[in-house]
C-alpha cells in the first residue's frame, strides 16, 4: 500500500538529519515514522517516557534527528513535551477517545461511499482478496495478524475513494488512535463480529450502494454505548 511504502522507504542520513533519500523523507521524518510504529504496536504505550539517547542508540543515529522527530510527533499530538519531565507518549482520555472515533467513523464512512462509486476492477479484486485473508486469519485466532490485515482492508477502501485530502486526514487520525484501535481487537467476539461487519460493508461497496456502505462503515468504526464500555474495560 502507498502508506506502507512511504513509511518503509529508505531515508538519507546526515549529522543534522536533513539529507533526503529517494523518497524525499528527511532522516528525522524517517525516525518519526519508526517511533510512531512503536507507539501504535504498543512497544511505547501511553505514559512511556521517550529518552532521546535511548531512541538515538536504537536507530543508530545522533540525538539531533531524534529531537526533530519528537517535535514532529508532538505536532501530531502523539507525544507531549513536558519540560524537565521529558517527552511522554500521549494518553487519550475516554471522552477524547469517543470523539476521535466518532470523527474517524465519519471519515471512513465517507471513504466507503466514495469507493462504492470509484473502485475499478483491480480495487474490487483486492478488496475481495483481503477479506478472504481476514477470514482465514480469524480462524487461527492470531489477533496481531488479524489486526494488520484488518488495517489493510480499510486502507484498500480508503485509497479507492480517490480523494487525496480524505486519505491524508484519515491516515493522520488513524495514527493517533492506532494503539486504541488495536486494543479493540481484544474485546470478546470482536474477530467474528468484524468479519460479519466487513462483509456487509464490502457487499454494499461492490453493489455500488454508497448510502448503505457509508452507514455500515460508520457503525463498524464507531465506539458507542456498550461497545465503548467493553473496550475501556479491556484496555484498563
UniProtKB/TrEMBL annotation:
<protein>
    <submittedName>
        <fullName>Transcriptional regulator, GntR family</fullName>
    </submittedName>
</protein>
<keyword id="KW-0804">Transcription</keyword>
<dbReference type="GO" id="GO:0003700">
    <property type="term" value="F:DNA-binding transcription factor activity"/>
</dbReference>
<dbReference type="InterPro" id="IPR036390">
    <property type="entry name" value="WH_DNA-bd_sf"/>
</dbReference>
<dbReference type="Pfam" id="PF00392">
    <property type="entry name" value="GntR"/>
</dbReference>
<feature type="region of interest" description="Disordered">
    <location>
        <begin position="1"/>
        <end position="24"/>
    </location>
</feature>
<dbReference type="GO" id="GO:0003677">
    <property type="term" value="F:DNA binding"/>
</dbReference>
<dbReference type="InterPro" id="IPR036388">
    <property type="entry name" value="WH-like_DNA-bd_sf"/>
</dbReference>
<dbReference type="InterPro" id="IPR000524">
    <property type="entry name" value="Tscrpt_reg_HTH_GntR"/>
</dbReference>
<dbReference type="InterPro" id="IPR008920">
    <property type="entry name" value="TF_FadR/GntR_C"/>
</dbReference>
<feature type="domain" description="HTH gntR-type">
    <location>
        <begin position="25"/>
        <end position="92"/>
    </location>
</feature>
<dbReference type="Pfam" id="PF07729">
    <property type="entry name" value="FCD"/>
</dbReference>
<keyword id="KW-0238">DNA-binding</keyword>
<keyword id="KW-0805">Transcription regulation</keyword>
<dbReference type="InterPro" id="IPR011711">
    <property type="entry name" value="GntR_C"/>
</dbReference>
Amino acid at each position: 500500500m502507498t502508506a506502507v511504502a512511504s513509511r518503509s522507504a529508505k531515508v538519507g542520513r546526515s549529522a543534522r538529519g536533513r539529507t533526503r533519500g529517494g523518497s524525499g523523507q528527511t532522516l528525522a521524518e524517517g525516525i518519526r515514522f519508526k517511533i510512531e510504529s512503536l507507539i501504535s504496536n504498543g512497544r511505547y504505550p501511553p505514559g512511556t517516557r521517550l529518552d532521546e539517547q535511548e531512541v538515538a542508540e536504537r536507530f543508530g543515529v545522533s540525538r539531533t534527528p531524534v529531537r526533530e522527530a519528537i517535535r514532529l510527533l508532538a505536532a501530531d499530538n502523539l507525544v507531549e513535551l513536558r519540560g524537565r519531565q521529558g517527552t511522554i507518549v500521549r494518553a487519550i482520555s475516554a471522552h477524547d477517545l469517543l470523539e476521535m472515533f466518532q470523527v474517524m467513523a465519519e471519515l471512513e464512512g465517507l471513504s466507503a461511499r466514495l469507493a462504492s462509486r470509484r473502485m475499478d476492477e483491480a480495487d474490487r479484486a483486492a478488496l475481495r482478496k483481503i477479506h478472504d485473508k481476514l477470514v482465514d486469519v480469524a480462524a487461527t485466532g492470531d489477533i496481531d495478524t488479524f489486526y494488520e490485515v484488518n488495517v489493510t482492508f480499510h486502507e484498500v477502501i480508503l485509497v479507492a475513494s480517490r480523494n487525496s485530502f480524505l486519505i491524508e486526514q484519515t491516515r493522520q487520525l488513524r495514527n493517533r488512535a492506532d494503539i486504541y484501535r488495536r486494543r479493540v481487537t481484544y474485546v470478546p467476539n470482536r474477530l467474528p463480529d468484524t468479519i460479519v461487519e466487513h462483509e456487509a460493508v464490502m457487499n454494499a461497496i461492490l453493489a455500488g450502494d454508497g448510502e448503505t456502505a457509508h452507514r455500515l462503515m460508520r457503525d463498524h468504526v464507531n465506539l458507542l454505548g456498550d461497545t465503548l464500555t467493553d473496550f475501556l474495560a479491556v484496555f484498563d
